[in-house]
Every structure is written in structure tokens, then in C-alpha cells.
Amino acid sequence: MKLKLQRWIHLNMAVIGGFLGGFAILNHHDLFGSAQTSNLISIAMDAAGHPDSDLLFRVIGLGFYIMALALTVILPKYTKIPMKSFSLAVDAAAVLIIGLLPSDLNDFIALYPLFFAMAIQWCSFPGADGFTASSIFSTNNLRQFITSLTEYICSRDPKALLKWKFFGKVLCFFHIGVIMSCLSCRHFGISGAWICFLPILSGILLVQAEARRVALKHALGRLYIACRRASLLSGLS
């Protein structure tokens, strides 16, 4: 039950990641709001003298991403904020904001909410079923999918088969999110971003179910320990 719940939470987050990744590409000139590889390359090229009027916007966007990554370390250390719930709240805020921004706003500025939210989500939902898998981009997931399939074909290792199935599901749900984003933006334009509230809501429900399960497990554990202590004390008396 625990593994299934974790798996469904991660697949749900992959839908959100695919949706918001697709939204950024569709509405902001093929810019991907979930990663920083191309942004870092462009900044390095700018440092080498490549002309770029968006350099300052790129650097600020990188700053948002870095700040979000740092927060996923700081908050668990110094607060009791549940990071999964926090990530979903940040996703919801980002979705609300990007659906309200004017369509002629600078593309990098328009992506700042996604830079922040996707970095938080990446670190808050690292994987499931014992596998580390990103829910916000899919290159490494594709690598794991292909290499585990090849490994299974070569060795018939059942662990490789399980890995292949898991990463296949993550890839599938991620691109379901992309398709949802495409259809939403086609019919509703920028405000189509708000359709993402649906997987965010289901994510909240799944995370709450997981939290209740953990709380019940801890309560039963404490009850068991109390009963054992009472039994030992009665035996001593």
C-alpha cells in the first residue's frame, strides 16, 4: 500500500511537471521553465561576448532557481514545514500567477514563477519505488527507461524489468501532462494554465492520504510500545 501510494504521488507530480513544462514551451518561444541547462549555456556564451539583451533576465531567473533549491535544504532543517505540501502550494501559486500574466511580458520574467516552483518540486518529490526519478524533465528518465529495458533483454534480470516499468510510467504520465497543457492552451490561451489546478488538487489529496497513513502508523507504534511496557510492568509486579 505504501509503495503504491508513493508511486501514484510521483506519477501525479510527473503530470504537473509535464503540464508546466509544456506550458512554458508553448507560450514562451520554446523556453523550458523546468531546467537551467540552456540558461547556463546562454549565460556562459554571454560571458564569452555573445550579444544577448536578456542576460540580466537570465541571471535573475537562475537566481530564483538557485534560491528554490537552497530552500529545500533550509526549510526541513529549521522548520517543520512538510515539503511535499509546501511544493504543491508553491505549484498552485505559480499556476495562478502565470495564468494572469500579460502575453506580451518578457518570456524570462514570465517564467520566474515556474523556475521557482519546479526547482522546489524537483527536490521535494525525488522518486518512488526505490528509484530516483525527476518529475519535471525527462532526459534522465528516458536514459533509465532504455538502459533498464536493454539490461532486461540481455540478462533477464527481474529488477531491471521493474525499473523499466517504473520509468516507463513516469515518462507516460509526464507526457500526458504535456498533452493536457497543449489542449488547454489551444482552447483557453494563457489562462489554460489553470487547468493544472486539477492534478495539483489530486496531488494534495494523495499527499494528505500519505500523511494520514504515516500518522496512523506512528500512533499504532506508540500504542504497541505502551502495551508492551504495561505488560512488562505487570509481569514484574
Describe this structure in words.
The protein has 237 residues and is mainly α. The chain has a single domain (2-126, 137-236), classed as Growth Hormone, Chain: A, CATH 1.20.1250. Helices cover 77% and strands 2% of the residues. It has a two-stranded antiparallel ribbon. Strand 1 (127-128) and strand 2 (131-132) form a beta hairpin. Helix 1 (2-27) packs across helix 7 and helix 4 (83-98) runs antiparallel to helix 8 (197-236). Keywords: Membrane, Transmembrane, Transmembrane helix. This is DUF1275 domain-containing protein. It holds the Pfam family DUF1275.
Order of helices and strands: HHHHHEEHHH
Radius of gyration: 21 Å
What CATH architecture label applies? Up-down Bundle
Continuous helix count: 8
What multimeric state do the chains show? single chain
* Record field, number of beta strands: 2
Calculate the mean pLDDT score and round it.
93
**Beta-strand content estimate:** under 5%
CATH class: Mainly Alpha
Q: Which descriptor suits the 3D outline?
A: globular
Biggest sheet: strands side by side, in what order? Answer: 1-2
Q: How many separate domains?
A: 1
As a percent range, the share of helical residues equals over 70%
The CATH topology assignment is Growth Hormone, Chain: A
N/C terminus separation: 41 Å
Task: Provide keyphrases for this structure.
237 residues, mainly alpha, Growth Hormone, Chain: A, two-stranded antiparallel ribbon, 2% strand, DUF1275
Task: Write the SSE topology.
Blueprint: H1 2-27, H2 37-47, H3 55-78, H4 83-98, H5 107-124, E1 127-128, E2 131-132, H6 139-155, H7 158-188, H8 197-236
Antiparallel strand pairs: 1-2
Helix pairs in contact: 1-5, 1-7, 1-8, 2-3, 3-5, 4-5, 4-8, 6-7
